[in-house]
User: Which sequence fits this backbone?
C-alpha cells in the first residue's frame, strides 16, 4: 500500500462520518479495489468506535502515517459531533489479529444497532467481531420475508439472520453452527431484542453429520446458507457446498425459498446457479440481492453473492 494514498482515506472517513446514520456501518472498503494504494485497508464505524483493519503487512512508514492521520482525524469537529470514543487498528496479517489502540479506550463488547435491531459485538481478540456488515441487505430481506415462516439458518455464526427472521415475524428458527460460543452470542442477540427464545433453537452440530436432526424440525419455508469460504477440518467451499445443495429438496416445504450466499472472490454467481441446477434442479434462481453501496467492488463477481432460489 502507498503512503501517498492515505489522504484519500482520511478525506473519505471525514465525509462518511458526516453522512452515515447512527448505526453500525462500513465507512471505507479498500478491498473493493476502487482506491489504488489502499486495497488492504478497511474502516468500520461501530457507533463511537472506529475499527481500522490492515490486511497485509505494510512498511513502518505507512503505519506511522496511518496512526498520525487517525489522531488528526479524531480532532475534527465531526468526530466530536459523533461522540468518537476510540480508534483501533487491527493488524489482520499478524497471528491473533492484534488490536492497537490509537486513541481513547476500547469498549470490547459494544452493543450496536443495524436496521433497528441490536447486536452484541466482541472486539480486539478475534478476526471477526460478530456481525458481517456486507450482509445488511440480506438480513433486511429476511426480516421483510420471514412472516409466519419456519426458517433454517445454516452456519448461523452469531445468529444475525435468526434475529432478523424473528423480528420479521417468523414462527420458528433453527440455527446450526459447529461453534457453541458463537451460538451463545446468538442467544444474547435474541435477548437484546426481547425475542421469545421458545421460537428459536440452537444446535452446535456438524451440519454434515446432523441431517436427520435438522430434517426433524422441517419442512422449512426458508433455508439460509451462509458458510465460510474455508474452515479447516469442517468446510471447503468448492468441495462441500454441493453436499448442502443436494439436501435442499428434502428440507424445503412446497414453495420454499433458499438464500444461498458465498463471499469468496474466487467464484462467481455461476458457482451457485450451476451447482443448484446440478444438485437441486427443482429450485429455480430468482435474483441476486444487491450489496450495500459502501461495499462496491470494481468486479461485482468478486464481492458478496447472496442469491435467492425458489
Assistant:
Amino acid at each position: 500500500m502507498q503512503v501517498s494514498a492515505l489522504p484519500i482515506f482520511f478525506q473519505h472517513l471525514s465525509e462518511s462520518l458526516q453522512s452515515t446514520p447512527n448505526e453500525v456501518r462500513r465507512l471505507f472498503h479498500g478491498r473493493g479495489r476502487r482506491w489504488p494504494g489502499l486495497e488492504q485497508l478497511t474502516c468500520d464505524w461501530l457507533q463511537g468506535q472506529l475499527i481500522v483493519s490492515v490486511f497485509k503487512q505494510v512498511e513502518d512508514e505507512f503505519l506511522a502515517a496511518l496512526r498520525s492521520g487517525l489522531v488528526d482525524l479524531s480532532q475534527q469537529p465531526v468526530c466530536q459531533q459523533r461522540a468518537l470514543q476510540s480508534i483501533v487498528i487491527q493488524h489482520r496479517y499478524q497471528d491473533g489479529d492484534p488490536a492497537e489502540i490509537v486513541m481513547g479506550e476500547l469498549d470490547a463488547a459494544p452493543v450496536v444497532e443495524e436496521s433497528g435491531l441490536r447486536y452484541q459485538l466482541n472486539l480486539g481478540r478475534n478476526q471477526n467481531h460478530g456481525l458481517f456488515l456486507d450482509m445488511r441487505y440480506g438480513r433486511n430481506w429476511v426480516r421483510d420475508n420471514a412472516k409466519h415462516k419456519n426458517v433454517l439458518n445454516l452456519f448461523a455464526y452469531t445468529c444475525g439472520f435468526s434475529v432478523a427472521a424473528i423480528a420479521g415475524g417468523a414462527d420458528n428458527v433453527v440455527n446450526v453452527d459447529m461453534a457453541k460460543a458463537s451460538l451463545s452470542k446468538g442467544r444474547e442477540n435474541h435477548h437484546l431484542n426481547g425475542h421469545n427464545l421458545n421460537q428459536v433453537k440452537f444446535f452446535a452440530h456438524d451440519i454434515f453429520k446432523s441431517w436427520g436432526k435438522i430434517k426433524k424440525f422441517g419442512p422449512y419455508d426458508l433455508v439460509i446458507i451462509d458458510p465460510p469460504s474455508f474452515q479447516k477440518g469442517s468446510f471447503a467451499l468448492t468441495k462441500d457446498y454441493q453436499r448442502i445443495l443436494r439436501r435442499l429438496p428434502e428440507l424445503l416445504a412446497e414453495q420454499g425459498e433458499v438464500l444461498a450466499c458465498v463471499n469468496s472472490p474466487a467464484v462467481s454467481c455461476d458457482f451457485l446457479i450451476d451447482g443448484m441446477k446440478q444438485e437441486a434442479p427443482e429450485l429455480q434462481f430468482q435474483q441476486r440481492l444487491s450489496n450495500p453501496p459502501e461495499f462496491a467492488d470494481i468486479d461485482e463477481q468478486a464481492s458478496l453473492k447472496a442469491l435467492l432460489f425458489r
